[in-house]
Amino acid sequence: MAVLLIAEHNNKELRPFTLNAATAASQIDSDVHAVIIGQNSEDAAKQLSELPVVKKVLSVEGAHYENFTAENFAPVIVKLAENYSHIVCSANTFGKNLMPRIAANLDTSQVSDIIKVISPDTFLRPIYAGNAFATIKSNDAKKCVTIRPTSFDPCESTGGSASIEKVDASEEFSNTKFIKREEIKSDRPELGTARIVVSGGRGMQSGDNFKLITEIADKLGAAIGASRAAVDAGYISNDHQVGQTGKVVVPDLYIAVGISGAIQHLAGMKESKVIVAINKDGEAPIFSVADYGLEADLFEALPQFMEELNKLNTIQK
Amino acid sequence: MKILVAVKRVIDYNVQIRVKEDGTGVVTDNVKMSTNPPDDNAIEEAVKIKEAGKATEVVAVTVGEEKAQETVRKALAVGADRGIHVKVDGILEPLAVSKILQKIVDKEKPDLVFMGKQAIDDDCNQTGQMLSALLNWPQATFASKIDVKDNKLEVTREIDEGLETIEINVPAIVTCDLRLNEPRYASLPNIMKAKKKPIEEISASDLGVDVSPRLEQLKVEEPPKRKAGIKVANVAELVQKLKNEAKVI
Ligand SMILES: Cc1cc2nc3c(=O)[nH]c(=O)nc-3n(C[C@H](O)[C@H](O)[C@H](O)COP(=O)(O)OP(=O)(O)OC[C@H]3O[C@@H](n4cnc5c(N)ncnc54)[C@H](O)[C@@H]3O)c2cc1C
Ligand SMILES: Nc1ncnc2c1ncn2[C@@H]1O[C@H](COP(=O)(O)O)[C@@H](O)[C@H]1O
After folding, report:
1. Which residues are CB-contacts of A147 (< 8 A; sequence separation ≥ 6)?
2. From ligand 2's centre to the CA of B128, what distance in Å?
3. pTM of the predicted model, to two decimals?
4. What's the rounded Cα separation, in Å, for the pair A278 and A269?
5. Residue ranges with strand state E in chain B
6. Interatomic CA distance for residues A137 and B62, integer angstroms
């Protein structure tokens, strides 16, 4: 039986992590079908059909799918599940919200947030904020699996030409009503997929001071991250939080500024290729994972950092 | 309105986790245990709603071994009215917990169930969503703000793109983020008073729920360690290393 991938999109285009989840799906079984549920999401469905790993696209349209409410999505997938051995999706807030609702209806124990496909029924996943890795074998007939997107490369996005099949919508769930979404728009790269991330913590002392970070991020073409403490203090919005209860990032370069390095923060960034820590406390735990540690006051170090960057002839983007 | 709150006992978030040498799990002997942090937020919110006169009773429930009862006792000390302890030994998957909680909901008929968004031991992030699926109730996951309006809740949810607001009719499930509120500490007199509050003990087998695991944990191992880095003397050296040694800028 084939694997069913649930596409994440914004009704116009696929969200990038769909490509990472597609890679994981194709490692489970080469026969990958993808379902896209939305309103006026034809363009995104077309994009999905062009992923070479996807063999067939199922498209479900309805006004009640516009805002991705799990209560509306789950019944569609549960009905389709009959024909599939695995249901997979990214382990971001979309998939975390949706997949357990599907799994419980299928009476399946979900495997969350896998970082490796060992075999079609065995997966590796982090537990305890990434302080241990568990190898898990699922004995359920149908397997519901969410994928940590940063642990899988995105698949090719062009060259495929899967057929797109329409599937009937399910009834609307009337007890949940979408009101609004406050998306913070920026021209910077997305935190989850950025090549460079510059993050600030409580050491930044205020939201205003984050402009020291913004300036450097813009120069480097980087995304901006934050510790939970910085978000809690209101310096920056929640979508920037990196860690166990925020986002997981694996950039080529992660620069942690005024962040102590609590295990819950490390859970979200310690797989980064190169880690830089700027902290005035030489004993801060962040230095234990940093490739390059700078023990300094950030209010002196960041302006100097900007100056040094300005001196460079070229900067990789 | 009656609010049921699910609380789980986990290794305290400050403990440095150690993996057992035989690969069967992590060390739990002589390790400090606490209530799963967002479950404290769930209790706090329920108690605040009761204090605001919008709820009549707050019931704390845990599923687990003998000692799990400590978490219910703690919930009672910060304002829950009574507790339920469903006794089960061994590994429990979120699916099994949600089936047990479904039975408790059938029995208690709460209007709301508050839970944590994620347990910090298994990091599953499943139980609330599973319970709402089994009950066919609305779910408001990752809540950072809750407004109670008659028989509706307006909930702000933390999502990857920012914030989302939904309105759900009761009965409903809410899973809480740490930013929902600031959990209070239990005062000594309240801890004493909590000792007199009732905790009902139920054995899972009496509920007729099959809790046998569906997943096999074949191995638990330490994650690969990063190799030690260096300290640089100044910003100029840092930028030079990033450019010429790491070649990332
Ligand atoms: C269940 C749970 C989940 C959590 N999830 C997350 C999560 O997802 N992400 C997360 O980040 N945290 C999370 N936390 C919180 C985590 O435990 C820490 O409290 C948090 O990461 C600390 O943030 P911080 O490093 O910014 O602040 P602090 O620990 O206060 O550190 C500030 C650092 O800044 C340095 N500093 C101060 N001033 C300067 C200066 N002028 N120049 C240079 N350095 C300076 C200090 O030396 C210090 O090291 C979670 C906690 C719990 C209980
Ligand atoms: N054994 C349990 N007893 C009571 N509540 C639980 C238990 N396991 C999970 N929960 C609840 O479900 C939430 C999410 O857990 P999880 O799905 O394991 O990440 C927790 O924050 C608790 O509120």
Report:
1. A20, A21, A24, A25, A88, A89, A90, A91, A95, A113, A114
2. 7
3. 0.97
4. 15
5. 2-6, 9-11, 33-35, 57-64, 82-87, 112-116, 139-149, 152-159, 162-169, 172-176, 199-203, 215-221, 230-232
6. 27
Rounded to an integer, what distance in angstroms lies between the CA atom of residue A15 and that of residue A7? 8
- Given a contact cutoff of 8 angstroms between Cβ atoms, the answer to whether A86 and A33 are in contact is no
Q: A112-163, pLDDT tens digit by residue?
A: 999 999 999 999 999 999 999 999 999 999 999 999 999 999 999 999 999 9
Contacts of B230 (CB under 8 A, 6+ apart): A291, A292, A293
- pLDDT tens-digit profile of A242-299? 999 999 999 999 999 999 999 999 999 999 999 999 999 999 999 999 999 999 999 9
Which residue in the set A94, A98, A109 is minimally distant from B214, CB to CB?
A: A109
Nearest CA to ligand 2 atom 8: B8
Distance of CA B78 to the CA centre of its chain: 16
Banded model confidence at residue A315, pLDDT cuts 50, 70, 90: confident
Report d(CA B242, CA A281) in Å as an integer.
22
In this complex, do A108 and B95 lie within 8 Å of one another by their Cβ atoms? yes
**What are chain B's domains?**
2-224 (3.40.50.620)
Is the per-residue pLDDT at A317 higher than 80? no
Sign of the C-alpha dihedral, residues B71, B73, B77, B83?
positive
Burial class (CB within 10 angstroms; exposed 0-12, middle 13-18, buried 19+) of B44: buried
Name the B residues in 50-109 with CB < 8 Å from any A CB.
93-95, 98
Q: Which residues pair with residue A233 across a beta bridge? A: none
